[in-house]
Amino acid sequence: MEKWRRSERIPIITKLLLEKPNTLLSLNYFAELFQSAKSSISEDIAIIRDVFEQFGYGKIETLAGASGGVICIPRIQKQEKIKFLRELKDKLSEENRILPGGFLYMTDIIFDVMIAQKVGEIFAEYFVDSSPQYVVTMETKGIPLALMTAKALNLPLVIIRDGGRVTEGSAVSINYVTGSSRIIRTMSLSRRALPLGSKVIIIDDFMKAGGTAKGMIELLQEFKAEVLGIGILIDTEYPEKKLVNNYYSLLRLVEVDEQERKISIKSILD
Amino acid sequence: MEKWRRSERIPIITKLLLEKPNTLLSLNYFAELFQSAKSSISEDIAIIRDVFEQFGYGKIETLAGASGGVICIPRIQKQEKIKFLRELKDKLSEENRILPGGFLYMTDIIFDVMIAQKVGEIFAEYFVDSSPQYVVTMETKGIPLALMTAKALNLPLVIIRDGGRVTEGSAVSINYVTGSSRIIRTMSLSRRALPLGSKVIIIDDFMKAGGTAKGMIELLQEFKAEVLGIGILIDTEYPEKKLVNNYYSLLRLVEVDEQERKISIKSILD
Predict the structure, then answer these.
(1) Which long-range contacts (CB under 8 A, 24 or more apart) does A236-244 make?
(2) What is the CATH number of the domain that holds A55?
(3) ipTM of the predicted structure?
(4) The last residue of a domain, from among A25, A50, A74
(5) Which end of chain A, N or C, is less packed with Cβ atoms under 10 Å?
(6) Total number of domains in chain A
(7) Stated pTM of the model
(8) Residue A47 sits in the same domain as residue A144
(9) How confident is the model over A158-163, as a mean pLDDT?
């Protein structure tokens, strides 16, 4: 007789699969945990797999063989994504978000854990097939989104520091020109923060002209990193021509009218 | 007949409970989701509750009545905490972490998502009973730990900016003196980032003399915030007298011997 019933094993297996998304967990591990036959575990997993698929929560794949195991690849339903981005767009369009200079107050939103998590899951889903090894961002506002992307992909996070003041041993600094305001700034990354030749994705909250993203790419070249893609929460319609190509943004800021107190934002899914 | 079998409902309920820890979810929500009787849902939850308790994953509490619901309060087993902090201590004690000036390279560890998450869960468990409304940190290195604490408590995150350069409308800035190096610095927080009179906890990665923490408390006083507690990943044995009292730290840096290349760290649980 099995020590644990199916209905008791399933909550534990579900928790462990969700805790380590996009990571291969061996069936032996579960079999030992429950002192149970691998065939029973496989059946448990098949039930979780089928119901997760029906609820659109993601794919659970089982790999056969001696090194066999199970991997949970979270997915977000298209309908849920559309709804989420529409709500986000509405929140960001509240007129009291307009700051002097036509900037948008969005700190409360990108530091909202549930929102950051969902954005991270959307980026993870988009970039998972390119098999990145690190998620890179620049301090400060991109960090929550990048961390949640890293969590969803089960990857380490690398944070580029703003300025040259790094207290982490030898570092590489570069000067870059912010694309919109044309100010020369410095960004730095500790030598030991990223192994040479890593495959990375860049995540950030905002892009206007793309100067910061271009700077990050240049800095990453010093680490011989391969930038597989760039994920941005919100970019701007103007300037139309950015300093980087091929980035993936979820929302687009069309216009901030300080006079009329009107903000116009588009979602990529609308 | 029920539309979904118990073994199919349980993975979904488990996922939804884990996704929103420390948050009341109504039984009606689950009953509607599965078009199922509330009594069946209650039985599902009882199974998850019992097995979570046996595995030491946390408490699941059911509240009866019209506004009844279920709440998942994650717990980490003492043994697991001891093991986790011991491994962390060993990692931080690797001699190649010594930086010029007797500093410790720990960025890779605090930016490791699995580690940040576990630390966040430990802080959440410690502070949950005081019912905080916000988790506060100061950029940059404290952010991953604070975000994961906020996630575990399902609370918003507030990030104090280093320096006076804030582009988020009116802000409060204060000068503070770093406790160890006696340098005057500035930290700022946007007025709209934190409502007046909020209950908060402060999370940070490191404390030496406590100057930064003291500065944060002073800045938070400008927001009439009540600081319920301070959680620190690693503090130092010297100076023995800190500028703040009553903080909770998980590890203590006893000594960094640059000559002998030796690092000595204690865990609060050893």
Answers:
(1) A236/A207, A236/A208, A239/A179, A239/A180, A239/A208, A239/A209, A242/A179, A242/A207, A242/A209, A242/A210, A242/A213, A243/A179, A243/A209, A243/A210, A243/A211, A243/A213, A243/A214, A244/A210, A244/A213, A244/A214, A244/A217
(2) 1.10.10.10
(3) 0.90
(4) A74
(5) N
(6) 2
(7) 0.92
(8) no
(9) 92
